[in-house]
Amino acid sequence: MKESFSDRELLDIAGTREFTWQYLPSKGKSGGILMGVDLENLELEDFSIHDFCIMMSVRDRRTNFRWRFITVYGPANHDLADAFLDELKAVCQESPLPVILGGWNIQRIGDQKKNKFELKEELQRIDKQAEVRDLGPQEWEHRYAVERELEQVYQFEESYWKQRGGKHWLLEEYKVYRGDRVRFWHDSWVGNMPLKTQFAALYEINENQHDLVCDIWDGEEWGLTFRRRLQGTWFEEW
Q1: Which of 54, 85, 120, 125 makes the best surface tag, with the fewest CB within 10 Å?
Q2: Is residue 149 classed exposed, middle or buried when 0-12, 13-18 and 19+ CB atoms within 10 A define those classes?
Q3: Contact 183, 211 (CB under 8 A)
């Protein structure tokens, strides 16, 4: 991982053109950022270096048009995704100029998607076992561990789609735009709290606890399935 660049290395990149450079060193498994401005065509008015990005405000010397470049390198550690998005949101919001974003680092989304389905299948397997016999303490502990891991996958997916959506996602409150981004039970998309909180009894016996809206809605009706016949409190909530 490089901590700095020599004058010779920068000269090899810029050739005979005059550039000014800013550098954010790599952190852990995340790469660093090297960002340069061609001073023959652009004037660098100001810049700032943050944890995950470099911001430069520039002016076109010919047209006098001014804008901001923001180059980011998202964290390889998905636990830092919220901090990354919060920082990027703040940098974008404070800009009085048009913004150009670049340099996303989104990795292993395919592996995460595969892992999500494996975890869902494991939860369903355990829940079916619980219907026919009493589970032991270690089995319940395993079930809750799988559920927690699945929650982390969903959090990663939410961060991924926010990054894919760019500024539109970052600068607005969380809303339901597409059913393939919203968890039916876990996201607050009907009212001000998740459906699993509003209809706790139904959630407990539902077999679609970790599905997205698009997994359940076929365009005409809801495909919810339950482990038990709906009666009493369950029927009233339904």
Answers
A1: 125
A2: middle
A3: yes
Cα 125 to the center of its chain, rounded Å: 28
Q: What is the Cα–Cα distance from 157 to 233, expressed in whole angstroms?
A: 34
Quick check: 23 and 44 in contact, CB under 8 A? no
Over the range 100-125, which residues count as b (16 or more CB within 10 Å of their CB) and which as e?
ebebeeeeeeeebeebbeebbebbee
Determine phi and psi for 84, rounding to 5 degrees.
Answer: -60, -50
Distance CA 218, CA 195 (A): 19
Instruction: Tokens for 85, please give them.
Output: 């998005």
Q: Give the tokens for residue 20.
A: 């000014």
pLDDT band at 108 (very low <50, low <70, confident <90, very high): very low
Distance CA 47, CA 29 (A): 25
User: 15-24, 115-124, 185-194: lowest mean pLDDT where?
Assistant: 185-194
DSSP 181: G
The two tokens of residue 35 are 């960002």
CA–CA dist 188, 196 (Å, integer): 9
